[in-house]
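We were asked to recover a plausible sequence for a given structure. The inputs and outputs are reproduced exactly as logged, with field labels preserved.

PROBLEM: sequence recovery
POSITIONS: 371
GIVEN STRUCTURE:
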């Protein structure tokens, strides 16, 4: 992980394929039990209730809470049906899923999705829509993963043009091409590898984490892209680890927070705080495999761990944390080890936490965690 910019994605897929034994979620509320201290310098709380809100999602990724109520989920899809085993194919199976009140359903479909063909019955892990926000003029603005370069994207053939970009669903227009940006500039000088992950609005444009390029990129409304900032490598006892920016959140005062997976090693993840006019500084450390974060209504952070164990081994349950935005103090939110390879988190206006769960394959879930 410290030496390859694409390896974080490969490690996540390998972790999923390892088939760890997990406690399955069931429909309806489940009372979580207090957990022992396992995650470095953190405090723990005593109870959280986990409720399945939606099921049968196709490789669900990022979650966005809507200001008027409800949430959106980006679904990376399932690639192309019938794709030959071990061959990468593109299909129009990516989508945006919405939950509001009693409504459950896809509100944007036919979005590009790429996956490698697998044997019948094996889970399909896809790249495609990884985060979503509403478009003020109708439809949605989506960031799509890829894991490659402009050359590898072109090799996928027709229909792959929005992979590795930020685009809008109402007309398919690409607003920011992070793959072209990384392929052309390679800002940190490492392997050329783009894998856009999460986005937030910022002024008239968007800030996007590129977990392959180790950058946070700004996409402006005129279609230009620029490197907002680079995250330095994490100097660990085992060697320097790639930072791997994943989740991103932006406060009303313009302060940006970025989650940093840092090589998939236990206790190595960091949260960066970037105040307007200042360089990035580490706010919190000691967590593992941070994959996303969001601000709650009090201005503090809720951070999500994909797995509490090293990515090199079988996946361990995911973990939720409260993080004080001023002091960096970390408090675990116990979920009874019921988060399985979660990838996205959002906090709604009422303080309820939504997480995409069981995200490897086409039987994913959206769950609500009531603290």
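RECOVERED SEQUENCE:
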């Amino acid at each position: 992980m410290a030496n390859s910019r694409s390896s974080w994605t490969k490690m996540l897929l390998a972790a999923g394929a390892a088939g760890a034994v997990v406690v399955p979620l069931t429909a309806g509320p489940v009372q979580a039990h207090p957990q022992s201290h396992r995650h470095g310098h953190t405090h723990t709380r005593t109870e959280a209730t986990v409720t399945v809100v939606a099921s049968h999602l196709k490789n669900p990724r990022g979650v966005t809470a809507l200001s008027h109520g409800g949430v959106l989920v980006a679904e990376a899809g399932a690639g192309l049906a019938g794709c030959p085993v071990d061959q990468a194919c593109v299909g129009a199976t990516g989508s945006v899923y919405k939950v509001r009140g009693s409504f459950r359903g896809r509100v944007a479909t036919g979005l590009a999705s790429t996956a490698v063909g697998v044997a019948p019955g094996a889970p399909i892990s896809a790249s495609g829509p990884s985060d979503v926000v509403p478009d003020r003029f109708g439809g949605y603005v989506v960031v799509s993963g890829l894991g490659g370069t402009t050359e590898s994207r072109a090799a996928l053939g027709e229909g792959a043009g929005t992979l590795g970009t930020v685009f809008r669903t109402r007309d398919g227009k690409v607003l920011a091409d992070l793959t072209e940006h990384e392929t052309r500039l390679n800002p940190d000088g490492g392997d050329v590898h783009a894998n856009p992950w999460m986005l937030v609005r910022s002024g008239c444009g968007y800030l996007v984490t590129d977990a392959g390029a180790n950058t946070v990129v700004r996409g402006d409304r005129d279609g230009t892209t620029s490197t907002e900032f680079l995250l330095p490598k994490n100097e660990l006892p085992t060697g320097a680890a790639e930072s791997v920016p994943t989740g991103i959140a932006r406060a009303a005062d313009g302060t940006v927070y970025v989650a940093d997976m840092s090589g998939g090693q236990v206790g190595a993840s960091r949260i960066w705080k970037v105040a307007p006019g200042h360089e990035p500084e580490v706010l919190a450390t000691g967590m593992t495999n941070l994959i996303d974060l969001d601000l709650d209504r009090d201005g503090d952070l809720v951070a999500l761990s994909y797995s509490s164990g090293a990515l090199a081994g079988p996946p361990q349950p995911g973990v939720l944390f409260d993080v004080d935005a001023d002091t960096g103090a970390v408090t675990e939110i116990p979920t009874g080890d019921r988060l399985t390879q979660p990838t996205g988190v959002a906090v709604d206006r009422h303080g309820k936490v939504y997480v995409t769960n069981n995200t490897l394959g086409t039987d994913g879930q959206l769950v609500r965690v009531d603290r």
